[in-house]
Q: What sequence folds into this?
C-alpha cells in the first residue's frame, strides 16, 4: 500500500518561531506526541513531547524558548507514492516512529509506527483467510487424488486425456461417447 | 527508574529525559503508588500555565 492511501492528512503543525509552551498546549489539546514544524506547509523540522520535556527539565522558560531551538532537523521525509514497507524499513533503520510525507517540500501527511502496525495486522488477517482458502483447496484436491483402494477398484477405466486439452478437443471426446 | 510522589515535576521531567523513558513508576517508601508518563508531565505543565494565565 502506498503512503498516500494510509497517511494521516490532518497533521498538527507549529511554526518555528512559536514557543515551547504553545507547542505543549497544542500537543495536549490535539492528544498527539509530535508536531511537524512548518512555514507555509514546507517542513522545517519535527518536535516531539520528549523534546519539550528537555526544555522543562533544563528549567528554561517554555514561553521564551522557541520551537526552532528544540526541534529536530534535518527531517527524514518520504514521498506519498512510497510503499508502507519502505516507511517501516526507514523507521527501523533510523529508530524513529513518525515520518512526514511530502512532495516538493510541501507537507501532505504523516505516518506513524502505530499506523503501520494497524495496517500490518489487517494484512495478516487477510493473509490468514487466503491461506485457509488455499489450504482448503489443496486438501480437497489431494483427497480426490488419493481415494481409498476399494473405491478406486470400482472406478470405470479413465479415458486417456491429453496433457493440454482445448475446448474443441474436449467436446470431441464427449461427442465420441454420445449415443447415435 | 522510579520517582517519589513528593518530588517536583521538573525532577520527573529530568529523569524521563535523561534515561530516555516514556513512563516510570511512582514509589512511596517502597510501595508502588502510580505511574507517571511524559504525557502526564506535559499535561500538568499546560494546566499549571493556564491557571497562571487565568
A:
Amino acid at each position: 500500500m502506498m503512503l498516500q492511501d494510509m497517511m494521516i492528512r490532518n497533521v498538527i503543525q507549529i511554526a518555528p518561531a512559536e514557543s515551547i509552551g504553545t507547542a505543549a498546549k497544542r500537543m495536549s489539546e490535539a492528544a498527539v506526541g509530535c508536531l511537524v514544524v512548518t512555514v507555509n506547509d514546507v517542513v522545517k523540522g519535527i518536535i516531539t513531547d520528549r523534546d519539550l520535556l528537555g526544555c522543562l527539565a533544563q528549567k528554561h522558560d517554555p514561553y521564551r524558548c522557541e520551537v526552532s531551538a528544540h526541534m529536530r532537523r534535518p527531517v527524514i521525509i518520504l514521498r506519498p507514492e512510497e510503499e508502507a514497507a519502505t516507511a517501516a524499513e526507514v523507521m527501523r533503520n533510523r529508530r524513529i516512529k513518525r515520518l512526514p510525507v511530502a512532495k516538493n517540500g510541501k507537507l501532505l501527511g504523516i505516518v506513524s509506527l502505530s499506523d503501520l502496525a494497524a495496517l500490518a495486522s489487517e494484512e495478516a488477517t487477510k493473509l490468514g483467510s487466503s491461506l485457509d482458502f488455499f489450504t482448503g483447496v489443496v486438501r480437497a484436491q489431494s483427497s480426490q487424488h488419493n481415494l481409498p483402494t476399494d473405491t478406486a477398484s470400482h472406478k470405470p477405466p479413465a479415458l486417456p486425456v491429453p496433457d493440454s486439452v482445448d475446448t474443441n478437443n474436449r467436446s470431441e471426446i464427449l461427442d465420441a461417447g454420445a449415443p447415435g | 527508574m522510579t520517582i517519589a510522589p513528593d518530588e517536583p515535576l521538573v525532577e520527573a521531567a529530568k529523569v524521563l529525559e535523561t534515561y530516555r523513558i516514556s513512563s516510570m513508576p511512582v514509589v512511596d517508601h517502597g510501595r508502588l503508588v502510580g505511574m507517571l508518563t511524559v504525557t502526564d508531565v506535559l499535561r500538568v505543565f499546560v494546566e499549571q500555565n493556564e491557571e497562571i494565565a487565568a
